[in-house]
Amino acid sequence: MFRLPPNFKKDVERLRAFLAFFPDGLRAAFEFRNPSWFDEEVYAALREHNVALVAADTGEEGEDPPVVPTASVGYARLRKEAYEPGEIESWAERLTAPDREDSYVFFKHEDAGAGPALVKVFRELADGA
Q: What's the burial of 4, exposed, middle or buried (CB within 10 Å: 0-12/13-18/19+)?
């Protein structure tokens, strides 16, 4: 997974040049933290190389991050301190698609140990989707 800093604005030519180095079959994902990256031109570049767009939910955005299928795998970082049951269900629906081979979902690691319980709920919902 490649995570770009928030001050790194959209540069599709640089992204395409970097993606050209990836060998076929490599499972990779990009987490863009600057909103300038969230557009169809970037999604098309990721699709050309079967690279996933990371959906990162930090709770700071004010709205859900985009979940755009750009690869045969999905990748999400669910980083909020807490999730309501309906929120987990929504994420399970959005990240579990019939055209995806796998989805990688990571929950926040914190001292309270809530992550494993959230994973259990997510898996039960995703398996039923």
A: middle
